[in-house]
Automatic annotation (TrEMBL):
It holds the Pfam family Utp13. One of its GO terms (cellular component) is 90S preribosome. It is found in: Nucleus, Nucleolus. Residues 21-131 form the U3 small nucleolar RNA-associated protein 13 C-terminal domain. InterPro entries: Utp13_C. GO terms for molecular function: U3 snoRNA binding. Signal peptide: none annotated. The keyword Secreted does not apply. Its main location: nucleus. The lineage of its organism: Eukaryota, Metazoa, Chordata, Craniata, Vertebrata. This is TBL3 protein.
Amino acid sequence: DVTEIEEEEAQAKQEEQIMKEQELSNLLHEKRYLKALGLAISLDRPHTVLTVVKAILREPEGRRHLEENIVRLRKDQKEAVLAFLVTWNTNSRHCHEAQAVVETLLKHEAPDTLLQFSGIKSAVESLLPYT
């Protein structure tokens, strides 16, 4: 009977998820945005990533801080953010944050590098009607 083992694994995953949520909350409170972005991306939480982006933009010099943080993300994290911002851009309440991230990516990534992102073609096609 593996039921007990499966229940223990499920509980361990749930506890790990709760710990990561608490860590994310602490990072936001401490204004450690790069780590918060990385953790939210790894948790695959687009709304949480949006919350982090909004928190960065509320800071004095927010655009500059956003650029500094986005530029320091790994390629796979930038790809995830690109996928998230396609959805944000379709909502008028979040489009300004999406456009700020798009601007940062376009400004700091070479066109050849952007073309290597997975899903770039569909992302651009989805961004065009709303941009």
